[in-house]
Design a protein that fits this description.
The chain has about 280 residues and is α/β, with parallel strands linked by helices. The chain has a single domain, classed as Divalent-metal-dependent TIM barrel enzymes (TIM Barrel). The protein contains 13 helices and twelve strands. It has an eight-stranded parallel β-barrel with strand order 1-2-3-4-5-8-9-12. Strands 6-7 form a two-stranded antiparallel ribbon. The chain has a two-stranded antiparallel ribbon with strand order 10-11. Strand 4, helix 8 and strand 5 form a beta-alpha-beta unit. Helix 1 packs across helix 4. The longest helix has 20 residues. The chain is globular, with a radius of gyration of 18 Å.
């Protein structure tokens, strides 16, 4: 499908896609894409989806899989498009069970520098202090091993970590006891959990090394389950999250290495170019 796929997408998105493509070269090195955003497109056409990302001017990626391709073939496809997977995912159970060789091998195969964990295994609505302490211990132990391999482990909070604990939240316990791991802030899930992403960034200015830029439709109910309707993902700057404030402060702090757009909704192909255009306008 390849180029035919791209042109079909361009026809759907319109001129805004072309504007972004030709006006974003500098920002492409700072803003990347979480490949989960295009999970459905990858199922249909791996090369065509990579072509689409290339038209957006994006070269920095967060992923971890090869979508059925051999690693050598997938990396070749990335190379021809000047793309790099700089961050890969790792499952909590693998980290807890000490499957470090598997995790390190995958990260090294991609040439990634970051390993992110996006979910702590727990029964529904049963995330508590005991689980927080367990996860902090798991991340510290794994983070120390990964650090020796030249990798940085980052935990991606999902909203349930912001349940009250003493004079703060369970996340505060985790952040204050994080000795060998860092964090990836998904601004959508932080907001969904009832926390202010900008305030959290300022409270822990050295803890966040990665960001997921994802905006939430205004009026979306707040909860701490870690689950929400993906169709509430909207174009950056159009929702309830202070995207501009977070991006500005992230740049000023100089600790965040990559900001990945993650858009999980069915309109992702139309929305990503608009989100890129919004971010470009912030400069």
């Amino acid at each position: 499908m390849g180029f035919k796929y791209i042109f079909e997408m361009i026809n759907k998105v319109g001129i805004s896609l072309l504007v972004v493509c030709f006006s974003l070269p500098a920002m492409a090195q700072e803003v990347g894409l979480q490949l989960y955003s295009l999970r459905n497109q990858f199922k249909e056409d791996v090369k065509g989806t990579l072509d689409l990302i290339e038209t957006w001017g994006i070269t920095k990626l967060e992923g971890g899989g090869t979508y059925g391709m051999a690693m050598t073939d997938f990396k070749k496809e990335l190379g021809t498009r000047n793309m790099n997977v700089v961050s890969v995912g790792a499952g909590y159970d693998d980290l807890r069970e000490g499957n470090y060789e598997k995790i390190i091998s995958n990260a090294k195969a991609f040439g990634a520098k970051y390993v992110m964990c996006a979910w702590i295994s727990h029964e529904s609505n049963m995330f508590d202090l005991e689980k927080t302490k367990e996860a902090t211990m798991v991340f510290n132990k794994a983070g120390e091993v990964l650090k020796e391999a030249g990798l940085t482990l980052a935990y991606h909070a999902h909203g349930y970590e912001f349940k009250p604990y003493r004079d703060g939240t369970l996340f505060d316990y985790m952040a204050k006891n994080a000795k060998h791991f860092a964090f990836e802030m998904d601004v959508y899930w932080v907001h969904q959990g009832g926390e202010d992403p900008l305030a959290l960034l300022n409270r822990y200015p050295k803890k966040f090394v990665l960001l997921h830029l994802k905006d939430m439709e205004k009026g979306t109910p707040i909860n701490q389950t870690g689950h929400a309707d993906v169709e509430t993902n909207v174009v950056l700057g159009a929702g309830a999250v202070d995207i501009a404030g977070v991006v500005k402060q992230s740049k000023e702090l100089g600790v965040v290495k990559y900001m990945f757009i993650e858009d999980e909704c069915s309109r992702v192909v139309q929305q990503v170019p608009l989100s890129l255009s919004y971010l470009e306008g912030l400069d």
